[in-house]
Queue: 2 jobs
Job 1
Amino acid sequence: MAVYQTAAPGVARSGAARFEANAATRDPTWVKIAILTISLGFFALFLLMPLIAVFVEAFRRGWATYIAALTEPDAVSAIRLTVLIAAIAVPLNLVFGVAAAWAITKFDFRGKQFLITLIDLPFSVSPVISGLIYVLVFGAQGWFGPFLVEHGIRIIFAVPGIVLATIFVTFPFVARELIPLMQAQGRDEEEAALVMGASGWQMFRKITLPNIKWALLYGVILCNARAMGEFGAVSVVSGHIRGQTNTMPLHVEILYNEYQFAAAFAVASLLAMLALVTLVVKTYVEWRSARASGAEPPASVATGAEPSGQGATP
Amino acid sequence: MSIEVHGIRKTFGRFVALDAISLEFPTGELIALLGPSGCGKTTLLRIIAGLEFADVGRVLFDGEDAAQRDVRERQVGFVFQHYALFRHMSVFENVAFGLRVKPRKQRPPESFIKRRVYELLDLVQLGWLAHRYPAQLSGGQRQRIALARALAVEPRVLLLDEPFGSLDAKVRKELRQWLRRLHDELHITSIFVTHDQDEAIEVADRVVLMNKGRVEQTGPTQDVYEHPATAFAYSFLGAVNRFPGRVDGGSLRVGDATVPLAECPGVGGGEEVIAFARPHELDIVVNGDAGEGVPASVRRIFISGAVARVELTGDPPSGEAAEPRRFEVEITRERLGQLNLQPGQAVRLTSSRLRVFPVDRQS
Amino acid sequence: MAQVRAHRVLPGFGLSMGYTVAYLSLVVLIPLSAVFIRSASLSPDALWAAVTSPRVMASYRLSFGASLLAAAINTVFGFLLAWSLVRYRFPAKRIVDALVDLPFALPTAVAGIALTALYARNGWLGQYLENLGSKLAAALVYLYPGGAWLGPYLEPLSIKVAFTPLGVLVALVFIGLPFVVRTVQPVLDDLDTELEETAASLGARRWQTMRRVVLPTLIPALLTGFALAFARAVGEYGSVIFIAGNLPMVSEITPLIIITKLEQYDYVGATAVAAVMLVVSFVLLFTINGLQSWTDRRVAKVG
């Protein structure tokens, strides 16, 4: 399942002007106004209002309450745990994403399509099930339960379980960003580097990495946002122990259920901010890659003074 | 450096890309691997470079088996069909790449790299583009930068995959002549892949003509063009007229007509054959004897320069549903004047230079 | 195989492939298999009873029904939004375009409490919907005093969103929207203007062109978007539970059933329901893969 390819170059950037300027593709003004009203109304109702609500509710009781909600010990420990979880899960999935994308895009082998489907698997599994599976493996009644209890190792209702569930949920993101891009870039540049005597590591560092860095950055940011924000899977394995196994989203839930709405929204606003930063990075990355792929030789270069430059092939 | 390949076989799944290929590429020559797309020529080039591996067979560089040599150690210069310029590096950095990635002990100092890169850029006449990025170059410029980059590591052999394939006609023609001159200056053993016979004829010292994973013919370019060894070679290297028929004594029988054969075809009488003649090897006879020459009617006449080209249609080959055969004849304007042809006129085609091949060998 | 591997030119196949498969197996495949292995330990009758009890059946109806409806709503509005983003110029378009991905980046718990804040009885929107009838009646009288007699009929009109199945629907619409927009948008963007120009030159009216040329081209993408939104909605948990009210038989979604069973230490029951959901997910996954390649073929430029 290809979740929409967020870093696809040039999408929606090439300008609506070319459609509006063309008699065959231009809609009548009243149609345009009607469609814009409906679609933007829908957008405002379902996307914009919830976002605004988070921040308005967070500051309803003023700055002092806001700051207090974020500096209260349980909140601080939830923030600390969330950062720790992301700091473990994201690098692991980063390495995986690069390795998987490398194997899939630079080599031909049987069952490639099947492997891609497997990588997408966590996208289509309910987060609740993503938590459940680790309970079944490591829980008290799970496969390794007796062994773990015997050796005093806690995985479920403890940090390792949260890390595992988070890794599962955020597993495909980096690979998913890289695969379409690396597929489009092909193998020629790497082969050219090898022919010129570059070692494998030199080839990767000097050719592959610079070509994928923006998509990689976005994949990591997205992976991080989801790792910090995961709720369902983490909720199953965490045990909701305050100050110990409570991540930020779980902390939001607890505060909300205790009717501490302002505090709940204060913590939620941090997560919303993270989401906004993610979207800004995404927009920037798209803009970068659209610019990189759309860069045509300027006319002065293409029709340069010397003879062979005249027939610039676009 | 000389290159030899012996008994190369390469398959992709069930598809046989190369079969029993044995060739020699003498030192200092410029050789074209020529053939239609899918004939295996690019695969052969990549095997020589070490970018692909043969299932069976050996590649020898100066008599030494290259199998143990990794692509990185083969010291080949490779120009990719779509150039494979590093898009995130300037032209200068692209050309310098091969020098910068040398092991620390062999890596030349920065001053040397700079001098060498500008030497190469001057060689391809693009020194003024050093700080541009590949996306800012025209196709022809990219092509030459790719060549400069390949030359930077002082390759022992230069391999070019469809070097002019993605350029438009005018630039292609200029670059061909330029590549030929460059080769005459550098004298590096060079092999290039092309599907364009004009390109091969114009640029190469020798041609290796390939089809369906096999070598059809090799030899000096002019020889191959003038003496095609197989039906495929004949029809691939230029325009042809085809006459399917039977050998009957010293002549070819096409339907009810006969055409005398100059050379003995080496096939038994009565055998089904196909005969070829280039447009300039046919002659038009206006009032020939019945049965002498293949009947056809004039369709269209057009004159370009000193030659006139006549398009004709023949009778459909037995069976009325079949398409009528088309012929093309090139004659001098003088001859055209003598013949005084009119569209629709019935004539006969004869040739003293028919080349005959048995039917089962044609492709 | 060994020979093939030895004959790859680019380095790192063994390493990257080995790591990929090992990591995939450890993190995803082995734990997932636990669901099926555990379910298989149940006798068929017990398994059947566990996954078809009335409360569970009610949750399927809600989860699948609301997901289908939400995906359908998203297909319509997502298409209009994608059309607006590709075809029209309007202010703040960049921001709208970027924010379409919000449900993808915003933690589901945050979305859940935000939607609840909007649609609860005393919430920003909830208070108007709750008293929709009287508000409408008042507006009617203000605009057209003669319509006052309609008031008593309008008065009882009241829509409760939060803590009802409608709340589930709202949450599922929220999280599914980007899937439709982002599958339709690139296809729309790649659509050759020549198609519509040709249609126009052949005398088609704008509406005919839309119906006979543009929409048929988009059908695979719309279906893919629909399926993606549906797949995501069926498994959704975080954004739903805050707004749903979670009344058994009424507004309890299937993922919540799993959690409830887990909290009651009914591991086997939870696993059995999870197995049902996983099977549905896999079917959806392969359907979507098929749709995706259909889209790719349909969109591939001719010549």
Job 2
Amino acid sequence: MEEIRLIVDGKRLDGRGFEELRPIKIEAGVLKRADGSCYLEMGKNKVVAAVYGPREVHPKHLEDPSMAIVRYRYSMAPFSVEDRKRPGPDRRSIEISKVSREALEPVIMKELFPRSAIDIFVEVLQADAGSRTACLNAASVALVDAGIPMRGMVTSVAVAKVDGVLVLDPMKEEDYYGEADIPFAFLIRNGKIESITLLQMDGRVTAEELRRALELAKKGAMQIYQLQRDAIMRKYIREEEVVE
Amino acid sequence: MISRKIVLPGDLVSTNPKTAGAGTYVEGGKVYARVLGLLDKTDTGVRIIPLKGRYIPSIGDTVIGIVKEVTANGWIVDINSPYIAFLPILENPAMKPNRKPNDVLDIGDAIIAKVMNIDPKMKVTLTMKDKLCRPIRVGRIVAINPTRVPRVIGRKGSMIKLFKSELDIQIIVGQNGLIWLNGDRRKVSIAEEAIYIIEQEAHTEGLTDRITEFIKKRKVELGLAESEAEPEESKNSEESK
């Protein structure tokens, strides 16, 4: 088998440095019918998030009398990958929905809305590795746009190990042929990382490498956090008010 | 001059927990914002004026609702909120012993009511025992974002007074973002347009003045303006009459 080299002359295949993110574009409030929404591009990933609620729970038996329930649906469009993806939930998207929901639940103040539901739908239009991180970033912006009370914001980024080096925000080739892929999600409050709300790992790294990966992810997350803030500010800046 | 800054959830707004107001939460002795909104910070307190969000009922609010279901002991009312409300027959003065609930109010009827009680499970009870409350049979209902309601009311009701004096229409603003308008159809249309402008430009300076101007302009255009308009404009309006 011909060997695939993912790092050439200290640069990655798309010319990025090891600690460099893909270009990110975020736009808040793109859907009129949703309470909050967000369109996000992270490299070649293109995702749309929509948030509805708090609203009545249907079916009724899911209702919790002490707090709101959070439902998160991650779904890939049939045209989002090279081979057509069979539409509908599969093993992978059910799992991603679950871990992503658990990443957002500690941030949302569920106890304020007993007997109600907060629904988050994220649709992947085009996938290129790290789509769950892109989806979480989009969902977080959409939740803020919906005016849902939260303790902070969630920002997510992945770190991969390719050719023995840790790289930030892997793209498809690095995810496929690399040695490990580690997505992180952080709760960021007042510009500081407070806790980790999602950590998965596919592949193998040493404990020392994981520690370094975490530091790398934190750096990347802070950059994304700033872009998330800017996207919301851009939409609402004209609302700023001058009072005497 | 102080500008009201936009804050996002998790932003530190104060270090004094005693000042924490609406839209904030306290953790570790510090006050953080919990919703997207405008920061309103004074010496005595800090609160966030939300920019987005659903209507959450609170006791004493005037709301406009649509009857969704009629039961033997009352009506289930949609109040444009995550929670449905219940209006017991005892709380509706139109209910006489020989009348059935669905003769008094039927599915699809709109009502103006007050929130009487909310239990910890967010079961909302309404009452119509108030002179403001009535079933809505005429007029028009306009829906806006509930967070904009204070702007439509104006400081000490200034915006409502403006509508009443300039357009001579009835207006009742529900806290849930539904507004009932009644009067001359053309005037109600002007008011509806004005309300949408208020919703769009809720947080800008001199809004009341601009709305006054807008209403006067629209009145002239529709030939409703009277002596208070400019001389040449009043001539136009006479011609159109």
